[in-house]
Design goal:
Pathway: Amino-acid biosynthesis; L-histidine biosynthesis; L-histidine from 5-phospho-alpha-D-ribose 1-diphosphate: step 8/9. Belongs to the PHP hydrolase family. HisK subfamily. It is a single chain. This protein is of the alpha/beta class. About 30% of the residues lie in helices and about 20% in strands. It is built from 7 helices and 9 strands; from the N terminus they run βαβαβαβαβαβαβαββ. It has a 7-stranded parallel β-sheet with strand order 1-2-3-4-5-6-7. A two-stranded antiparallel ribbon has the order 8-9. The chain starts with a strand and ends with a strand.
Amino acid sequence: MKLCDHHLHSEFSDDSETKLTDIAEQALYLGMSEICITDHHDIDYPKDEEGHTFLLDTSRYISAVRKLQEQYKDKLTIRLGVELGLMSHIADKIIAYTDKYHDFDFIIGSSHLVYGKDPYYPAYYEGRSEKEALLEYFESILANVQTFDNYSIYGHLDYAVRYCPSGEAAFRFSDYGDVFEAILKTIIEHGKGIEINTGSLYKNMTYAHPHPEILKLYKELGGEIITIGSDAHVPKYIGYDFETYARDILTATGFHYYCTFEQMKPVFHKL
C-alpha cells in the first residue's frame, strides 16, 4: 500500500499555483489511494513581502474540492482539509471559523506567526540569539495546544528550524526538551496528533519535521496519532520520500501504524 499524502497545497493557497486536478493526477501516477488537500488559512497574517495574506476563500475552496472528489470518485479518495494558522491571542476568531465550517475531514494546526512575525523571514531572528528565537516559537506552540481543541494534528512542530540563519545546526533538542514534553503531553491528552512532514527534506534539511528526538519523545509519551504529509506546493514533491524516509523513521521509532482522517476522526493504517 502506498502511503497517503495528508498535507498538500493548491492554487487556493497564496503560495501555490498548482491546479487541484494536477495534484490528483500526480497522486494517481504515484499509486496513491488517498490524499487530503490542506490549503492555508492564516487569520490576521500581515501582508508579507510577496503580498501574500494567506486568507482562504473557504466557500469557493470547498466547492472546488467537492467537484474534484466527484470527478475522481472511482479512482482516488480525496479528503477535504485545511492548514489553519493558530495563534492563542486570536482564539475567538479561529474558533469562530471552525464553528462556521463543519465540512473538513482534517485540520492541520500550524504555527506560521509569532507575535506577527513569520520565522520564514530573517527579521524574526534579528536582535537575539537563534536559541531565544526558537524558544519563543516553541513556547507559542505550547500556548496554542493549551488553547485550541479544534484541530486534528499539529503540523511541522519545528518549522522555524527550517529557516534559522544557521540552519538545522541551530537546533539542539536538549535545549527545548521541557517545552516539547509539555507540548506533546498536551497534544496526546487532547486526543490530537502530529505529522511527519517531508517538506524539509527538499529544502536541504537532513531530517523531516519533527526532529527524530521529538518523534521519539512523542512515542515514549504514548503518542499514536501521526499523519504523513509532503507539504507539497508543486506536483513533483507530492509523496516526497514517503517510501524511504517517512516509513523508515516511523518503523525505527516503534510505530506500526500511521493515520489518515475522515470527518475529523483518525483512521489507522498499517505501515
